[in-house]
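One-letter codes give the sequence; the fold follows as tokens. Both lines appear below.
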Amino acid sequence: MVKAAPNKSIILAKVIGVEKFKSPDIYSARLEIVDSRSVEGYENFLNKSIGKFIDARIFSKKQLVPSEKSLRIALRYEGDESGGMYYGSTEDEQ
């Protein structure tokens, strides 16, 4: 299997749905991508995903709740050609 290339994006996203994951500070979230910025030295897998929805595991010390307000989140994709997941942290934890 071929692993995903090193990648990282800084996104603005609306939290559409959220639930606690295995740890108190980790959430399984459904995000609507509002904007995506590249990080120097990394591929940006989300630059063509504006307006689309993704699922991600997000680390946040603050409670993550559905909101119309956009959050700044650093995300990376981990996986291969058979599938994977986006992982990231909110602006406060970067």
